[in-house]
Specification:
Elements (H helix, E strand, L loop, with lengths): L3 H6 L5 H28 L11 E5 L4 H12 L3 E6 L2 H12 L5 E5 L5 H14 L5 E3 L15 H13 L5 H21 L9 E4 L25 H13 L4 E4 L4 H9 L2 H11 L6 H11 L1
Parallel strand pairs: 1-2, 1-4, 2-3, 5-6
Bound molecules: nicotinamide-adenine-dinucleotide (NAD).
The site of nicotinamide-adenine-dinucleotide has 19 residues, from helix 3.
Protein backbone atom coordinates (compact mmCIF):
# COMPACT_ATOMS: atom_id res chain seq x y z
CA UNK A 1 0.00 0.00 0.00
CA UNK A 2 2.70 2.49 1.06
CA UNK A 3 5.72 0.78 -0.49
CA UNK A 4 5.52 2.14 -4.02
CA UNK A 5 5.57 5.71 -2.65
CA UNK A 6 9.31 5.57 -2.07
CA UNK A 7 10.11 5.04 -5.71
CA UNK A 8 7.72 7.81 -6.82
CA UNK A 9 9.09 10.48 -4.47
CA UNK A 10 12.75 9.50 -4.43
CA UNK A 11 13.58 8.87 -8.09
CA UNK A 12 17.14 10.16 -7.82
CA UNK A 13 17.93 8.80 -4.35
CA UNK A 14 20.65 6.17 -3.96
CA UNK A 15 19.40 2.60 -4.10
CA UNK A 16 20.28 1.92 -0.44
CA UNK A 17 18.21 4.92 0.63
CA UNK A 18 15.23 3.74 -1.41
CA UNK A 19 15.48 0.28 0.15
CA UNK A 20 15.64 1.81 3.64
CA UNK A 21 12.60 4.01 3.03
CA UNK A 22 10.75 1.07 1.47
CA UNK A 23 11.70 -1.07 4.46
CA UNK A 24 10.29 1.50 6.88
CA UNK A 25 7.11 1.83 4.81
CA UNK A 26 6.78 -1.95 4.64
CA UNK A 27 7.10 -2.14 8.45
CA UNK A 28 4.44 0.57 8.67
CA UNK A 29 2.20 -1.46 6.33
CA UNK A 30 2.86 -4.60 8.34
CA UNK A 31 2.04 -2.94 11.70
CA UNK A 32 -1.07 -1.34 10.18
CA UNK A 33 -2.27 -4.73 8.87
CA UNK A 34 -1.73 -6.38 12.25
CA UNK A 35 -3.58 -3.53 13.99
CA UNK A 36 -6.49 -3.84 11.50
CA UNK A 37 -6.60 -7.62 12.03
CA UNK A 38 -6.72 -7.16 15.82
CA UNK A 39 -9.49 -4.56 15.49
CA UNK A 40 -11.43 -6.82 13.11
CA UNK A 41 -11.50 -9.57 15.71
CA UNK A 42 -12.90 -7.15 18.28
CA UNK A 43 -15.41 -5.25 16.14
CA UNK A 44 -18.36 -6.82 14.26
CA UNK A 45 -17.49 -6.97 10.52
CA UNK A 46 -19.31 -4.79 8.00
CA UNK A 47 -21.00 -7.20 5.57
CA UNK A 48 -21.21 -6.34 1.87
CA UNK A 49 -24.39 -6.74 -0.14
CA UNK A 50 -24.49 -9.42 -2.85
CA UNK A 51 -27.88 -8.38 -4.17
CA UNK A 52 -27.88 -8.60 -7.98
CA UNK A 53 -24.58 -10.48 -8.11
CA UNK A 54 -24.39 -13.56 -10.33
CA UNK A 55 -23.04 -16.25 -8.05
CA UNK A 56 -21.74 -19.59 -9.33
CA UNK A 57 -21.74 -22.41 -6.78
CA UNK A 58 -20.11 -25.73 -7.58
CA UNK A 59 -21.30 -28.92 -5.89
CA UNK A 60 -24.62 -27.18 -5.32
CA UNK A 61 -26.46 -30.50 -5.03
CA UNK A 62 -24.51 -31.43 -1.89
CA UNK A 63 -25.08 -30.55 1.74
CA UNK A 64 -22.96 -27.41 2.01
CA UNK A 65 -23.48 -26.36 -1.61
CA UNK A 66 -27.26 -26.38 -1.10
CA UNK A 67 -26.95 -24.30 2.06
CA UNK A 68 -24.63 -21.82 0.28
CA UNK A 69 -27.16 -21.54 -2.53
CA UNK A 70 -30.00 -20.82 -0.11
CA UNK A 71 -27.97 -18.27 1.85
CA UNK A 72 -26.95 -16.42 -1.33
CA UNK A 73 -30.58 -16.57 -2.52
CA UNK A 74 -31.74 -15.00 0.76
CA UNK A 75 -29.23 -12.19 0.13
CA UNK A 76 -30.77 -11.60 -3.31
CA UNK A 77 -28.03 -13.05 -5.54
CA UNK A 78 -28.87 -14.67 -8.86
CA UNK A 79 -27.52 -18.21 -8.92
CA UNK A 80 -25.71 -20.51 -11.32
CA UNK A 81 -25.54 -24.00 -9.85
CA UNK A 82 -23.11 -26.66 -11.05
CA UNK A 83 -23.11 -30.30 -10.02
CA UNK A 84 -22.67 -33.68 -11.71
CA UNK A 85 -25.69 -34.97 -9.80
CA UNK A 86 -28.52 -33.53 -11.89
CA UNK A 87 -31.39 -34.51 -9.56
CA UNK A 88 -29.74 -33.10 -6.43
CA UNK A 89 -28.75 -29.92 -8.27
CA UNK A 90 -32.30 -29.40 -9.60
CA UNK A 91 -33.64 -29.91 -6.09
CA UNK A 92 -31.39 -27.11 -4.80
CA UNK A 93 -32.48 -24.94 -7.73
CA UNK A 94 -36.18 -25.42 -6.83
CA UNK A 95 -35.57 -24.55 -3.17
CA UNK A 96 -33.65 -21.41 -4.15
CA UNK A 97 -36.28 -20.32 -6.72
CA UNK A 98 -38.88 -20.55 -3.93
CA UNK A 99 -36.95 -17.73 -2.28
CA UNK A 100 -37.67 -15.54 -5.31
CA UNK A 101 -34.34 -15.42 -7.13
CA UNK A 102 -33.36 -16.49 -10.65
CA UNK A 103 -31.55 -19.82 -10.67
CA UNK A 104 -29.78 -21.61 -13.54
CA UNK A 105 -28.79 -25.22 -12.93
CA UNK A 106 -26.20 -27.02 -15.08
CA UNK A 107 -24.99 -30.59 -14.99
CA UNK A 108 -21.20 -30.38 -15.04
CA UNK A 109 -18.52 -32.95 -14.30
CA UNK A 110 -15.72 -30.90 -12.76
CA UNK A 111 -13.23 -33.72 -13.17
CA UNK A 112 -13.34 -33.08 -16.93
CA UNK A 113 -11.70 -29.88 -18.06
CA UNK A 114 -13.65 -29.75 -21.33
CA UNK A 115 -16.94 -29.95 -19.36
CA UNK A 116 -15.88 -26.91 -17.32
CA UNK A 117 -14.99 -24.90 -20.45
CA UNK A 118 -18.23 -25.89 -22.20
CA UNK A 119 -20.36 -25.05 -19.17
CA UNK A 120 -18.55 -21.72 -18.70
CA UNK A 121 -19.25 -20.80 -22.36
CA UNK A 122 -22.93 -21.76 -21.96
CA UNK A 123 -23.30 -19.70 -18.78
CA UNK A 124 -21.67 -16.69 -20.45
CA UNK A 125 -24.01 -17.00 -23.46
CA UNK A 126 -27.23 -17.89 -21.64
CA UNK A 127 -26.94 -15.99 -18.34
CA UNK A 128 -24.02 -13.54 -18.43
CA UNK A 129 -20.73 -12.94 -16.67
CA UNK A 130 -20.43 -14.57 -13.27
CA UNK A 131 -19.37 -12.10 -10.56
CA UNK A 132 -18.83 -14.48 -7.63
CA UNK A 133 -17.68 -18.11 -7.44
CA UNK A 134 -18.01 -20.51 -4.53
CA UNK A 135 -15.63 -23.39 -5.31
CA UNK A 136 -17.40 -25.83 -3.03
CA UNK A 137 -17.58 -29.15 -4.93
CA UNK A 138 -15.40 -31.82 -3.43
CA UNK A 139 -15.02 -35.55 -3.08
CA UNK A 140 -13.36 -37.62 -0.42
CA UNK A 141 -11.69 -40.96 -1.11
CA UNK A 142 -11.97 -42.19 2.48
CA UNK A 143 -9.21 -44.77 2.04
CA UNK A 144 -5.69 -45.12 3.34
CA UNK A 145 -3.32 -43.59 0.79
CA UNK A 146 -1.76 -46.94 -0.08
CA UNK A 147 -5.14 -48.67 -0.41
CA UNK A 148 -6.68 -45.97 -2.59
CA UNK A 149 -7.11 -47.01 -6.23
CA UNK A 150 -5.35 -44.74 -8.71
CA UNK A 151 -8.65 -43.72 -10.35
CA UNK A 152 -10.03 -42.52 -7.01
CA UNK A 153 -6.86 -40.58 -6.20
CA UNK A 154 -6.94 -38.99 -9.65
CA UNK A 155 -10.60 -38.10 -9.36
CA UNK A 156 -10.07 -36.54 -5.93
CA UNK A 157 -7.26 -34.34 -7.23
CA UNK A 158 -9.15 -33.46 -10.40
CA UNK A 159 -12.29 -32.34 -8.53
CA UNK A 160 -10.79 -30.83 -5.37
CA UNK A 161 -7.73 -29.20 -6.89
CA UNK A 162 -7.34 -29.21 -10.69
CA UNK A 163 -10.89 -27.98 -11.26
CA UNK A 164 -9.98 -24.75 -9.45
CA UNK A 165 -6.98 -23.90 -11.64
CA UNK A 166 -3.80 -25.39 -13.00
CA UNK A 167 -0.37 -23.98 -11.94
CA UNK A 168 2.99 -24.78 -10.27
CA UNK A 169 2.20 -23.08 -6.96
CA UNK A 170 -1.06 -25.00 -6.48
CA UNK A 171 0.68 -28.28 -7.27
CA UNK A 172 3.31 -27.56 -4.62
CA UNK A 173 0.63 -26.67 -2.08
CA UNK A 174 -0.88 -30.05 -2.97
CA UNK A 175 2.51 -31.71 -2.43
CA UNK A 176 2.81 -30.16 1.05
CA UNK A 177 -0.73 -31.36 1.88
CA UNK A 178 0.11 -34.83 0.57
CA UNK A 179 3.21 -34.97 2.79
CA UNK A 180 1.23 -33.91 5.86
CA UNK A 181 -1.52 -36.47 5.30
CA UNK A 182 0.96 -39.27 4.59
CA UNK A 183 3.05 -38.40 7.68
CA UNK A 184 -0.06 -38.28 9.90
CA UNK A 185 -1.42 -41.52 8.44
CA UNK A 186 1.85 -43.30 9.13
CA UNK A 187 1.91 -41.87 12.64
CA UNK A 188 -1.67 -42.95 13.33
CA UNK A 189 -0.80 -46.48 12.27
CA UNK A 190 2.30 -46.59 14.44
CA UNK A 191 4.50 -47.03 11.39
CA UNK A 192 7.30 -45.41 13.36
CA UNK A 193 9.93 -47.01 11.15
CA UNK A 194 8.85 -45.02 8.11
CA UNK A 195 10.10 -41.46 8.26
CA UNK A 196 9.12 -38.54 6.06
CA UNK A 197 10.94 -35.28 5.38
CA UNK A 198 9.42 -32.29 3.64
CA UNK A 199 12.13 -30.33 1.76
CA UNK A 200 11.26 -26.72 0.89
CA UNK A 201 14.16 -25.07 -0.95
CA UNK A 202 14.37 -21.52 -2.22
CA UNK A 203 15.19 -21.02 -5.94
CA UNK A 204 17.97 -23.38 -7.01
CA UNK A 205 20.60 -22.20 -9.46
CA UNK A 206 20.03 -24.95 -12.04
CA UNK A 207 18.11 -23.11 -14.74
CA UNK A 208 14.61 -24.25 -13.79
CA UNK A 209 13.72 -20.72 -12.66
CA UNK A 210 16.21 -18.84 -14.84
CA UNK A 211 15.22 -15.17 -14.91
CA UNK A 212 13.17 -15.31 -11.72
CA UNK A 213 14.65 -12.70 -9.37
CA UNK A 214 13.60 -10.86 -6.24
CA UNK A 215 14.32 -7.15 -5.67
CA UNK A 216 17.88 -6.50 -6.83
CA UNK A 217 19.10 -4.83 -3.60
CA UNK A 218 18.13 -7.97 -1.65
CA UNK A 219 19.49 -10.57 -4.04
CA UNK A 220 22.80 -10.87 -2.18
CA UNK A 221 20.85 -11.49 1.04
CA UNK A 222 19.11 -14.55 -0.42
CA UNK A 223 21.05 -15.66 -3.50
CA UNK A 224 19.82 -18.67 -5.51
CA UNK A 225 20.97 -21.93 -3.92
CA UNK A 226 23.70 -24.05 -5.40
CA UNK A 227 22.30 -27.47 -6.40
CA UNK A 228 24.94 -29.42 -4.46
CA UNK A 229 24.37 -27.35 -1.30
CA UNK A 230 20.60 -27.90 -1.64
CA UNK A 231 21.00 -31.65 -1.89
CA UNK A 232 23.54 -31.78 0.94
CA UNK A 233 21.22 -29.79 3.26
CA UNK A 234 18.29 -32.02 2.24
CA UNK A 235 20.38 -35.11 2.98
CA UNK A 236 21.23 -33.78 6.46
CA UNK A 237 17.50 -33.38 7.16
CA UNK A 238 16.59 -36.78 5.71
CA UNK A 239 19.35 -38.60 7.57
CA UNK A 240 18.58 -36.64 10.73
CA UNK A 241 14.91 -37.75 10.43
CA UNK A 242 13.82 -34.12 10.41
CA UNK A 243 10.11 -33.63 9.60
CA UNK A 244 10.69 -30.57 7.49
CA UNK A 245 13.53 -28.42 6.28
CA UNK A 246 13.54 -24.97 4.68
CA UNK A 247 16.72 -24.09 2.74
CA UNK A 248 18.10 -21.56 3.59
CA UNK A 249 16.79 -21.15 7.16
CA UNK A 250 15.53 -17.67 6.26
CA UNK A 251 12.69 -19.41 4.34
CA UNK A 252 11.18 -20.51 7.68
CA UNK A 253 10.17 -16.86 8.19
CA UNK A 254 7.67 -16.62 5.28
CA UNK A 255 6.49 -20.16 6.12
CA UNK A 256 5.62 -19.08 9.66
CA UNK A 257 4.46 -15.60 8.67
CA UNK A 258 1.94 -17.10 6.27
CA UNK A 259 0.05 -18.72 9.13
CA UNK A 260 0.74 -16.20 11.88
CA UNK A 261 0.35 -12.81 10.22
CA UNK A 262 -2.71 -11.26 8.54
CA UNK A 263 -2.91 -11.56 4.73
CA UNK A 264 -2.16 -7.84 4.21
CA UNK A 265 1.01 -8.03 6.34
CA UNK A 266 2.27 -10.93 4.23
CA UNK A 267 1.38 -8.97 1.10
CA UNK A 268 3.39 -5.95 2.30
CA UNK A 269 6.55 -8.03 2.87
CA UNK A 270 6.00 -9.96 -0.35
CA UNK A 271 5.85 -6.71 -2.33
CA UNK A 272 8.84 -5.26 -0.50
CA UNK A 273 10.89 -8.33 -1.44
CA UNK A 274 9.77 -7.97 -5.07
CA UNK A 275 7.92 -11.29 -4.88
CA UNK A 276 4.97 -9.91 -6.82
CA UNK A 277 7.15 -9.29 -9.88
CA UNK A 278 9.84 -11.95 -9.52
CA UNK A 279 8.28 -14.33 -12.02
CA UNK A 280 7.79 -11.75 -14.79
CA UNK A 281 11.25 -12.06 -16.43
CA UNK A 282 10.90 -15.85 -16.17
CA UNK A 283 7.45 -15.78 -17.82
CA UNK A 284 8.67 -13.39 -20.57
CA UNK A 285 11.63 -15.66 -21.23
CA UNK A 286 9.42 -18.76 -21.43
CA UNK A 287 6.93 -17.01 -23.73
CA UNK A 288 9.71 -15.84 -26.04
CA UNK A 289 10.98 -19.41 -26.21
CA UNK A 290 7.51 -20.79 -27.05
CA UNK A 291 6.58 -18.20 -29.71
N1 LIG B 1 -18.76 -32.21 5.07
C1 LIG B 1 -17.66 -31.95 5.76
O1 LIG B 1 -17.49 -32.37 6.92
C2 LIG B 1 -16.59 -31.10 5.15
C3 LIG B 1 -15.53 -30.66 5.95
C4 LIG B 1 -14.53 -29.86 5.38
C5 LIG B 1 -14.60 -29.54 4.05
N2 LIG B 1 -15.64 -30.00 3.31
C6 LIG B 1 -15.67 -29.63 1.91
O2 LIG B 1 -16.86 -28.90 1.68
C7 LIG B 1 -17.29 -29.11 0.32
C8 LIG B 1 -18.74 -29.56 0.31
O3 LIG B 1 -18.86 -30.74 1.05
P1 LIG B 1 -20.27 -31.41 1.39
O4 LIG B 1 -20.17 -31.84 2.80
O5 LIG B 1 -21.37 -30.51 1.00
O6 LIG B 1 -20.17 -32.69 0.48
P2 LIG B 1 -21.32 -33.39 -0.39
O7 LIG B 1 -20.79 -34.71 -0.77
O8 LIG B 1 -22.62 -33.32 0.32
O9 LIG B 1 -21.39 -32.43 -1.66
C9 LIG B 1 -20.40 -32.42 -2.65
C10 LIG B 1 -21.09 -32.12 -3.96
O10 LIG B 1 -20.07 -32.04 -4.95
C11 LIG B 1 -20.58 -32.70 -6.10
N3 LIG B 1 -19.47 -33.21 -6.90
C12 LIG B 1 -18.61 -34.19 -6.59
N4 LIG B 1 -17.82 -34.45 -7.63
C13 LIG B 1 -18.20 -33.62 -8.63
C14 LIG B 1 -17.79 -33.46 -9.99
N5 LIG B 1 -16.82 -34.19 -10.51
N6 LIG B 1 -18.41 -32.52 -10.71
C15 LIG B 1 -19.42 -31.79 -10.19
N7 LIG B 1 -19.86 -31.93 -8.95
C16 LIG B 1 -19.26 -32.83 -8.18
C17 LIG B 1 -21.39 -33.87 -5.56
O11 LIG B 1 -22.33 -34.36 -6.51
C18 LIG B 1 -22.07 -33.23 -4.37
O12 LIG B 1 -23.31 -32.69 -4.69
C19 LIG B 1 -16.34 -30.17 -0.25
O13 LIG B 1 -15.33 -29.53 -1.03
C20 LIG B 1 -15.72 -30.80 0.96
O14 LIG B 1 -14.44 -31.33 0.68
C21 LIG B 1 -16.63 -30.75 3.82
Amino acid sequence: MFCSWALKFLPAAPAAMVVLVDLLLMLLDLSYSILCAVLQTLLPPRLKSVEGELCLITGAGGALGRLFALEFAKEGAQLVLWDCDTAANEHTARLARDLGVKVHAYTVDLSKREHIYEAADRVRAEVGDVTMVVNNAGVVAGRRLLDCPDELLERTLLVNCHALFWDYCASKFGAVGFHESLALELQAENQGGIKTTLVCPYIVNNGMFAGCEIRKELRSLIPPLEPLYTVQESMKAILGEQQMVCIPRLIYIPFLARVLLPWEANLATYRFMGGDKCMLPFINRTETKVT
